[in-house]
Amino acid sequence: MQVLTIPVTPFMQNARFITCEVTGKSAVIDPGGDPDKLLSVIAEHSLKVDAILLTHGHLDHVGAADILRDKLNVKIIGPHKDELFWFDALPMQAQMFGFAPKETFLPDNWLESGDTVQVGEIRLEVLFCPGHTPGHIVFYEQSAKTVIVGDVLFKGGIGRTDFPKGNSAQLKESIKDKLFSLPEETLVLSGHGENTSIGHEKRTNPFMSGQYG
């Protein structure tokens, strides 16, 4: 699995293109904005984007999804249906985050815990990790030893829970039960900032001290 990371918007959100090295098929995960920039990357690298995948409904992660859907004629898949609140609130989010006005749109398909998404021969397992938002999911690729976590876990940090419907205890439980149960060598691709690993965060993340083992 090849991963191309393109930070977008003033929030420097990590939009990710994942590509199957066998079939050449790609997906874009969390296209949070700057659609022209993302379309230029697709053209420059001749990416065959088959789907748009979303971890949660915050505007800085979904802001370009509907535009790319129309341009590429692909489906928006995910997140969990409990994110409907945030999609309905997209106009409010645009005001709250200082983005340009944004109309409401919805994914084509919601995802549930235990679902899988295929991108060529890449098999993404869906893990339900609420807390930052009520319907947040992450995508785990076992063979690539990689998990794409949105805003659940960061290098040295965890997701904010001070937005509506955030829940700190639930977030920590998600990290402990779903993420910290993955192999320690698993690469963590977060929605903002640097990559990290499950083992590193288990040992050093100050927000999760004593939350495992």
From TrEMBL:
Keyword Heme: no
CDD domains: YcbL-like_MBL-fold (cd07737)
Keyword entries, A-Z: Hydrolase, Metal-binding, Zinc
GO terms for MF: hydrolase activity; metal ion binding
Region (Disordered): 191-213
Metallo-beta-lactamase domain: residues covered: 12-192
One Pfam assignment: Lactamase_B
Domain of life the protein comes from: Bacteria
Cofactor: Zn(2+)
Record InterPro entries: MBL_Glyoxalase_II, Metallo-B-lactamas, RibonucZ/Hydroxyglut_hydro
Protein name (Swiss-Prot/TrEMBL): MBL fold metallo-hydrolase
